[in-house]
Specification:
By secondary structure, the protein is an all-alpha fold. It is built from 10 helices and no strands. It is globular, with a radius of gyration of 21 Å.
């Protein structure tokens, strides 16, 4: 399913010193405009846009230098996957619980991405090669992180703003866990909307990265579409599990 050769084309032209200078200017300009829009719009994430762009630049530069070595060794590949899972867990956990219980977010990230990713590999549909495993699992881990963050934030906000409804459910005889799930479930489910919309509109609104990467790597459109379909459906399962686990952790007052 995956081509043996590396990409034959590129979406971004970066050739020579001039190309890298142009890249730097475009990245700085886009990040600056994002921060400016945030500031003018009162969205309170101007600095976050700049810091996120700076971190992405540094991290991608390091990964770009290391990835060739990582993809030549299963041990290094396994360590890199653990690093991705750990980073995703910390990112989601810090977003939900800045202090104290944030490590519990790992249950949602690991508990969704790992079994689904393992299932794909055991199915034989994804070849057991480093160059195939890393990007596929990276996509699933990223989806788990996003779903955990969104579901957690929405659920915690709902429980704070609708505290009276939670107390009313308790007076009706529900235990705390059930009352919290009753009130927070619909809000937690909103974390699935971006993934559902992406799956519904794939090929019509956007051409996701896996599809484009396969085409640029020399695969046929049918092969690229097959890979993207598997990734999108697996991502729906990952995000559903991550959302459900996050809701359960919050309902049990484990993650807060």
């Amino acid at each position: 399913m995956f081509p043996q050769a590396y990409g034959q084309a590129s979406l971004v032209q970066v050739d020579g010193v001039g190309g890298y200078v142009r890249l730097a200017l475009v990245v700085v300009l886009l990040a600056g405009l994002a921060a400016l829009v945030n500031r003018l719009g009162g969205l309170a994430h101007g600095r976050d846009a700049l810091s996120a762009a700076a971190r992405a630049t540094l991290q991608l530069a390091v990964v770009g230098l290391l990835i060739a070595a990582v993809l030549r060794s299963w041990w290094l590949t396994a360590l890199f996957i653990v690093l991705m899972l750990s980073t995703a867990s910390v990112t989601a956990g810090r977003r939900l619980a800045p202090t104290g219980r944030w490590p519990w977010a790992a249950a949602a990230v690991w508990g969704s991405a790992v079994p689904v990713g393992a299932g794909l590999l055991l199915s034989g549909l994804i070849p057991l090669t480093e160059v195939a495993v890393v990007p596929i699992l990276g996509i699933l881990i990223g989806g788990a992180m996003t779903a955990t963050s969104l579901a957690g934030r929405r659920t915690l906000d709902a429980l704070r703003t609708r505290r009276g409804e939670v107390e009313a459910a308790l007076t009706l005889g529900l235990v705390v866990r059930d009352a919290r799930i009753l009130i927070g479930r619909d809000d937690a489910g909103l974390a699935l909307v971006p993934g559902l919309d992406q799956t519904r509109t794939v090929g019509l609104v956007t051409l996701p990265g896996a599809f484009v990467g396969m085409l640029l790597g020399g695969s046929t459109p049918i092969q690229a579409a097959a890979v993207q379909l598997v990734v999108l459906v697996a991502l729906l399962l990952v995000q559903s599990i991550a959302t459900l686990v996050t809701l359960e952790l919050i309902a049990r007052d484990v993650l807060r």
